[in-house]
């Protein structure tokens, strides 16, 4: 009997939504009483029963009062809409309309767009094209229109919008059952509307929202038709019929899981919801199978479903292992589904899952953008993607509404100048209206990689306008590049030393249907395409995903407390078996210099004799070098494979042991790269574009430092941003480097010391302990009869 | 006696400054009276004398009263300052300070700058460097500081500023006599402070203004010292001692003339003024001598001095034959000196000279800029120069103040957000304050070239965001390029089909001292560097200035009344003897297209068999071609001379007679170039950068259409801007051309007819009469049994 009562109370409890504190109170009370009944055996069982009855009655009454009072202030999650925009949200939005400028503006824009589309009519064409083609773009447009029209119906109470959604849904319901698998064969998981299940999932994520909005506009028969002919077979197709797509840990699966999950929430189908959260069970899979991007479908024993997709790719810091470009893409399904789940089934506490990682991921993602909001290029990523992307509007609004109303997010929302037309967007609009926003300050930050945060990290050093992105992560799943310890440098939101990004023109049909180009594998993923070490003209991990995905770099130091000397240091010991790489990047703000500069120390130690290439992908126009180079009459192809086949050798020089200097101009700013060289190091001016029969690559330049026949090697360089040019005033200011010389004062297994001298004969010495990163350790080192003592892993001192 | 009285009256008249109406009245009166005396012989000569005496007395009295009353309201031009800022101007400025925002702001900025410089102290170093180097940049800075400090002294009545100018001037006066000719040998006219007299002249133009401002702050002895030790020898050096510099028609000479003229005005030295206005007389010169840019010093019999420099390079439309980049540079000395002359000696009526060409030139120059204000690239020109250049602030302000207060200029001044700190700047500031500004609307315009406007022209077609610049001018003096009938295309202020500009990094010392690079001659000036015909891999006029400067292209049609069909057509018959070139460029706004498109018809007819190359310097990334090309494993150098040695051949294809299409992406916009080709025409993808040992060139792309073994040839193409891409939404809109086919329906000596068909099977036919440009002529032409009749040189009709 006790058991029955417990169940009863819990059921009632369950219906008292959101009244968490009261639930806790009840549970404590019940547990105390139960204990009492079990221990005080002296009381007769009748008395027990009577007391119990009183208890049940009073509790039920209390609980129902609570429920009643709640209904007056907070929405019930039963009924529709209840996923993204809720019944209560609709009420609140309506009562605020006209007084919430950013929301009103978004609403007006959306209304204008949808009104025009309703006027033009819609098309539901027979699927045929890859992305960029008509049928692809039309189905893509349709789901966006339905989602927006659904919301407009709720907010504006105008049946026209509901009717538009209804008409389109019925058109889909009529045609969907007749459509075979999409005719384009490229995908490992072909969709029905689109060439891949991924896009079909996109469709369902949006359409489920539209359905939620017009649910009550439809009668039961209509709903039955839609669910039977369209939604359930659709959900089954992308899950049960494509487990190789659905049962993964990958952004593809996240979309699939969320799509099915959201439709499950609308239809109140717990079986389907469980499938979304925990995957399609009892499916055999082949652990060697790969997707068409070259990524494994699934590792043996790997968890599946939505929770698994939160667990694995996100580090505890919220870094998404594929990188910000894909996080931006994945963040929408993660967060839109989490939001729906929170609204509809708060007991899942999805935003608390894994110590609140979904909210943390928003902060991480925003920190992975440059000062203009463009995401840093890590792994496969298209340049120009930024937090102005539509999915980031939703991300920021959800982050604000469900993540504790961080006022910094309001300033981003204000720049986005748009909010989502739902409860979260309303919260943001009200926050802005009330003037609550504060600047979102991006500071230097290290974001760990790996489900447990122990698979390396991305280190971002920010110093005034400079932003240095240093990569020492895990592989990044199928979108990973083979570029351990690579970096990129930005100034004032412009890339100065570049990461190439991916070789793809997303959705531009002319370029391979808008999909990945073959040069993505042969060039963009290869090590030589990045600002890091390539050994013996072979990519790290032999350019093999199977090997690369088993390893990660390791953090060594990340120290940014002193904003004038910020240090990120990391080690990679698996990229080339037998060779250890240790790179330390430092931003130094020194009053003797116009701007902060970057010190870069790359130590290589190997058991074998190798050739080491360290490219420097500066963007801009060469102004001057301090070394004589021999420009070839016609370029040569630099190598045969591993990306080298895509590089032209344009010029070369032999180093004489002096510092080399490369001075260049970009965006009317002068930069200088100063690097220490040994006698007979080779310098190669290269240009991207060889073996590129269709002009898929950008023909940008690089300067490669090459050390031949070396076991150990030490690459040390400084990057300065020191001057400006104006084509309007034609004035060149500080066109030259401020550095006279950089030199290695000391280099052993234990310590490396570098001296940097200015033209005014001031000098600084940076010393790092190479094997002891205990920040409390005391060090003492004598160099040229001078004793240096310090505490911690590194020191920067004036050299008098 | 009559003669004497006339002189007397004129002298008196002369002193009644600015009272033009009264002058006119007096002259009319006198003339009437003189006529009266000559005709009424009956009146005795005594009576005549008596009447005359009365007249003289009354006129003198009237005139002097006028002068007296004027002094209370308008400044007298005697005294100082009187050149740029006048006594009256100073009064008016002071009384308006604090209520003229744009002026107040400029004043505050200037004050802040000069205060800081005064605090830092100045240096007058011994001349040593080329531009970009310390001594060059310091002397350059000094003259700007003196000019500004002088003005501040006048406006703020603070002796600190006068003292600063005085100290610096005395430092110069002390050192100047000891300095030899500048040690750097590159110039045909070496200066003393700078490596060329040109920069010395810059110094004097600014310094004369400073001297004018502090003239009364100095005592006579001080003035004597400065004039004797510095100003007179300085003026003599750049004029008498360097007549090869001073006695030219060239922007160099304009600076020299203005410099000497302005100092003459300050010192009230009429002999020196005459030298400025009319040149150094009695100097022998060698007509074969050239300057270091390759331009002739002077043509035989050519006029010299300031007026000659107004006469010759400016066409009656105000187009400056060297092009807008140099006009921008020259406009400052032209206008600053004209302003000084107008203020000090209005009787010269300098702004009325040559039918007011100096004011017209301002309008012409502003029209030679793209929608963002960047000047079009014609001849030697550095990209990025715009009407935000300091000299344009002065140009616009002078244009407003002395050119009839055109409210359009106020909108440009407002964008410049700065005014000159003088009478003209005050007028602009007051105009803006009073809200008088109107948009400066740039329309399609043809600007004739040549002193008499009969040496070709520049035609600018503007259609919505598109701006097409079509060049059919004279050579453009020593800064001219060999590119008759070339064009460049801009959209929304961005260059789409480029003119390379010059090969020079102005004032960037790292690049050849900031001077012209040798690639300017070997590449940038050559025909193949431009979007026009090169015959037999030889530049037009054999690339020889001597030949090129004797010829010009000829206007044929410029018709822009119908903004939907705008036509510019021109002929060139001297670039290649025996070959005639006729190019017609049309912008067509057609509702079947997203944006206006450009139709380009280049007719070549020759007595001989030749090879014709027509390059197309598109900027951006190749998306797709409809023809298969063979990309070379490594590029080849395209040719041996005439610029071909700087082009790499990267890929080639053989045309099959079908239209070729090149689709590309620039600044997130999609463009397509469609061109008619004959069987076996060759298509070459080229890239700039061969034989460029120091990375002086930009490595941009071109597509060359090559017709071999042809006498006559017809190149017909269409350029469309048709779509957009967003890297944020990743949406590609209208990525493809709207054109199915273009074809030549008819081509004879008399007529050329081109048909353009859209993908929706609509077609238009453009017909041009090739030999009769009478706009009233009636034409009838039957093509494929269809009769076309029209009036005027061309027609565009629907083809049903």
Compute the separation of the termini of chain A in Å: 85 Å
* Biggest protein-protein contact in the assembly: A-B, 49 and 49 residues
CATH fold title of the largest domain in chain A:
Beta-galactosidase, Chain A, domain 5
**Strand percent estimate of chain A:** 15-25%
Low-confidence stretches of chain A: 1-30, 32-37, 50-76
Account of the 3D structure:
The structure is a homodimer of 800-residue chains. Chain A is α+β, with helices and mostly antiparallel strands. The first copy, chain A, has 3 domains: 2-73, no CATH class; 122-312, Alpha/alpha barrel (Glycosyltransferase), CATH 1.50.10.100; 450-798, Beta-galactosidase, Chain A, domain 5. The first copy, chain A, contains 20 helices and 26 strands. In chain A, strands 7, 8, 9, 10, 12, 15, 16, 19 and 20 form a 9-stranded antiparallel β-sheet that branches. In chain A, strands 6-11-18-17-14-13 form a 6-stranded antiparallel β-sheet, with no helix packed on it. In chain A, strand 8 and strand 9 form a beta hairpin. In chain A, helix 1 (2-15) runs parallel beside helix 3 (45-73), helix 6 runs antiparallel to helix 7 and helix 7 (159-175) crosses helix 9 (220-238). The first copy, chain A, is elongated and about 90 Å long.
Task: Give the tags.
homodimer, 800 residues, alpha+beta, Glycosyltransferase, Beta-galactosidase, Chain A, domain 5, 23% strand, elongated, disordered N terminus, lyase (chains A, B)
